[in-house]
């Protein structure tokens, strides 16, 4: 969400253990526990979230850089 007063992004209010990505108005969490797809999605859904779908290299790089900053 854009703050039109100063052309900056508003930081979303993320659940515990999630980090914000204001440009996407999203929150992400890195789970290091090995899970299969079904288990991983179920875990996300317990938090009211879902698995991320990465559509291109730029998005992938952006998300990975966020993980590196927050972990």
Describe this structure in words.
The chain is α+β, with helices and mostly antiparallel strands and 71 residues long. The protein has two helices and four strands. The chain has helices spanning 37-46, 57-70; strands at 2-3, 8-9, 19-21, 26-28. A hairpin with a 4-residue loop joins β3 (19-21) and β4 (26-28).
Please sum up the structure shown.
Helices cover 34% and strands 14% of the residues. It is built from 2 helices and 4 strands. The strands form 2 sheets. It has a two-stranded antiparallel sheet with strand order 1-2. The protein has a two-stranded antiparallel sheet with strand order 3-4.
Strands, total number: 4
Quote the distance from N terminus to C terminus.
24 Å
Structural class: alpha+beta
The percent of residues in helical segments reads 25-40%
Largest sheet: 2 strands, antiparallel
Spatial order of strands in the largest sheet: 1-2
Order of helices and strands: EEEEHH
Q: Return residue spans where pLDDT drops below 50 for at least 5 consecutive residues.
A: 1-8
User: How large a portion of the residues is in β-strands, by DSSP E?
Assistant: 5-15%
- Average the pLDDT over all residues and give the rounded result: 77
Oligomer: single chain
Q: What count of helical segments does DSSP give?
A: 2
Please compute the radius of gyration using only Cα atoms. Answer: 13 Å
- Described by the principal axes of the CA atoms, the overall outline is globular
């Amino acid at each position: 969400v854009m703050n039109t007063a100063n052309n900056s992004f508003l930081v979303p209010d993320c659940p515990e253990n999630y980090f914000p990505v204001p440009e996407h108005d999203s929150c992400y969490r890195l789970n290091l526990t090995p899970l299969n797809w079904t288990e991983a999605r179920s875990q996300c859904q317990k938090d009211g979230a879902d698995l991320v779908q990465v559509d291109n290299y730029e998005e992938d790089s952006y998300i990975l850089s966020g993980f590196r900053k927050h972990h």
